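task queued by scheduler; priority normal; single chain, no ligands, no partner chains; default sampling; output format set to structure tokens
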Amino acid sequence: MMSDASHRVLDREEQFQNMRREVRAGLDLTSSAGDKELWQGIERKVLSDPELDDLTSGERHALVQRLFDSFRGLDILQPLVDHPDITEIMINSHREIFVEQEGEVSQIQLEFESRERLEDIIQMIVSGVNRIVNESSPIVDARLKDGSRVNIVLPPIALKGPTMTIRKFPSEPMTMPDLIGKGALHEEAAELLQQLVRSKFNIFIGGGTGSGKTTFLNALSQFIPPDERIITIEDSAELQIVTVPNLVSLETRNANTEGKGEISIRDLIKSSLRMRPNRIVIGEVRGAEALDMLQAMNTGHDGSLSTGHANNISDMISRLETMVLSGAELPISVVRQQISSAIDIFVHLSRLRDRSRRVTEISEVIGMKDGEVLLNPLFRFQERDEREGKIIGGLVQVGKLKRIEKIQMAGLGEWLSEYIGRYHKELEDSDNKVN
């Protein structure tokens, strides 16, 4: 038997649907009016409806907001997008919605009024960034106005119905001190990375899905000197580089309905080389564009940054090899030589079992040995304990930087001497503890 609370929820939903139909039918505001005029029209309608007299002022405002969002926002998704603690929204079908909040995923008791309504929202999102998604082209990446990343998969690929995943980003990009405060890395590692970015080391960030690669790339980019010219290249623009005025952001474009007009990451990398960049930042490499990225790094565009998916640094190197080979028939030795000469530093991020995102390894590329890319580990994550479900641990310095030419050329020799002195002292202290 249904409880009184359940009846009230159904009544409220019925009131919303009735009011929405009345607003749509009785007010010619949804298409031509501005946002303010539409809001005022909905507000008048809600305040004058005698059937809503039992609502509190807060409930009336919430109803006005929901009605407005259903015409101009993302309907039932808008409060979820606006919620500061929700980091991911997963729509498996119009009746099934999950959210991630503080690292935990849970289903919420919201659903779209119909499959067609969800499809309308999807088309509104993709059209806003000049993308196309339909049955013949059922997969697309897009973004919201606030920069949130959106992935959409339509039937017949998605069996339950239209599927959409929204990865949210903070309105203000996280800084390195923010990441230190969250325990993602410690000050010593952050200081080293700051000097490496200033010295134009080519840095590649690897990690699994949701490990924080884009967030970390944004934080690293804040160390780029503000007098440089930066070109960013992404599938869907989501990077937030706020400290460099001379910034050009480029975004790929899908083919049109006739299969023409596609602009790929490879096209954008080639074009960026003619735009006089000091550095190129590639949001993520997934395929043959890895070869173009490596060639750009090898042809005078030092200080470039990028990310990729992998389980550890060794796997990232293997994945880069596979990506390059997908775009060019080259001997594997040549590919590895390209990687070893182009990339200076690999940073790996992981999402640990307590849902925390940590930097788990920083390694330097120091050349080739026996046909393999040779790494010099600088920092590794060491777990010390686990308390109340939280992992206790952090990065431990396990090696010192060997390729220091770029640091010296950047005029940071004094810092380098201090860094090496500190490293040797830490080693001595560590040895004394062991002895």
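post-processing summary
- The domain at 80-168 is CATH 3.30.450.370 (Beta-Lactamase).
- The chain has 14 helices and 15 strands.
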